[in-house]
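Newbie here. two chains, one complex. Structure please?
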Amino acid sequence: MWKTILRRFLIMIPEVIILSLLVFLLAKAMPGDPFTGSINPKADPQQIKHLMRMNGLYDPWYQQYWNWVVHLFHGNLGNSYQYQEPVTRLIEGRAGNTLWLALFTMILTYVFALPMGVFAGRHEGKLPDTIIRVYTYVTYCIPFFVILVIGIWIFGYVLGWFPTTGSISSDASGWLHTVGSRFYHILLPGLLGALFGTVNIVQYLRSEVIDAKHSDYVRTARSKGVPNRDIYLHHIFRNSLLPIAAFAGYSITGLLNGSIFTETVFSYPGMGLLFVNSISYRDYTVITALVLIYGILNLLGTLLSDIILSIVDPRIRIE
Amino acid sequence: MAENFEQHSDISAADLARLSQEAQAEATPSTAKIIWSEFKADRPAMAALFIIVGFIVFVMVGALFIDTPKMMETNIMAYFNQPFTPEFWLGADSGGRSVAKQLIVGSRNSIGIAIGLTIISSTFGICWGLISGYFNGYIDWGMQRVYDFMMMLPMTMMIIVLVTIIPHYNSVTLTFIFSIFYWEGTSRLIRSRTLAESEKDYVAASRTSGTSHWKIIFREIMPNISSLIIVDCTLSFAENIGVETGLSYLGFGLPSQTPSLGTMISNANDPNNITQYWWTWLPAALEIIILCLAISYVGQVLRRAADASQRQGAAD
């Protein structure tokens, strides 16, 4: 068990190193330098060159990479050109919004998907199963950003039920009101994300339930006279709970990638929208920091899933 | 044995011909035949297929008759022209450009990129999966690590970053950039099937009789999983339509002077457009939805055809 986790960690190390190298080289390939925007345009070019040499921008690339990594470990990701403030502080303010939205979407996804999966598996081949299958199929194949646009059009603009921009209303005051307003702002994107993101969990759970229905332990329970409802709730469902939980890690990575679209459509000030804005302003320090953060979060998400799966399935473990 | 059989066989030539005809009729029909009978059994699938093929042919041919630079010229007289007028069937956008014409050219661009992306990324993914699954051991381990690494990269972000770094890009370079990141799903699927397939007896027999690895992979294993490949290509085609349009929607896909379904939907980013001038973006959104639904429906039918236990069409 621990060996598996340890090995998984060891594999992670070169991945992170390669990711950081890739991000660093991409940042180097981008036009502009760290003084763009912060220096008087009338400054003497000689002086700028001197500044750049002082800051090590003419050093060989491996030296620069090393400096960058050292700064990274000190929590120094540089300054944003656009906002003229440290990138870490800038991202700190946005990360919470993105993570709350992702967490909320994930919880809602499970709330919708678990009953649907069990229900579809229980009534395999009958009408409810067909309806759920059509539903998952329709939600799966439509590109998510189209759903977001149509969702905000219908529920945000035409019906006016939900706010269409921001993460909190400007006149929110008091603890309860603030939390309520925040919740109100993530409700529509969360609902849309959850309703259209159930397909993996539903399909997995459905096939698990169908397999379990014909297994020996269910037959034993049935012959003991356990009510049908309890068999599904306490025997079958509990058994498939852990592998289902393992999906959480993967769905985090999916939600993070989707956050770029969600936050753009809803003008929701999170990391995804920050990324899109930074690209428009060619704000490279922010871009590299965000790519790095998203990569590491993806990595942690898959790590989480793999660890849960190795707990569940002894075949994956190495001894 | 053979002599014995000939001596005692009293089957006439006519009977033999009839028997072999019967045997042929009872033999497993070809993949194309199975797929066709599956479509014949499922009317909506047939309709979906005709919609897709007809639509693609229509936009490809229709776009040839439209002068794109002239179409993209601003015409202030037609500023937000109402739809359903004789000159502008679907109205005009903020620049007075015809939405209907943009829709045709945009569909051509978006579908073209999706087709190109499907061909490139699927070819690469199939080769990757086949090689990784067939050569178990170190090669597979190494290729799996590359796969893991690619999965870790934040895809959308990487594509956007690459698009901004490359100074002059067009639809071809864009297709290649997308292809770098969209082969993983296919490769994983193909690898798992290849792993199962290379355990089978026919592969072992070929190997012992000295057939080269490449011949076993591409002439023996690949035809055996061809149905899976067809299904996967169809489904990833539906997905790939969302890839380019999504990026263009964010403003990092095709350049702004090249119409795309995604750039048309991005008209909805303006609060005025989204409510008052719905015709500038809604047709493109509906088109994507219908197209994706139809393509994946066809994909579902192909999947049924690939799995003998689910077939609905009588194989005749």
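Moderator note: The mean pLDDT of chain B is 82. The interface with chain A takes residues 145, 148-149, 151-158, 160-162, 164-165, 235, 238-239, 241-242, 245-246, 249-252, 265, 268-269, 271, 274-275, 278, 281-282, 285, 288-289, 292-293, 295-296, 300 of chain B (CB under 8 Å). Thread marked as resolved.
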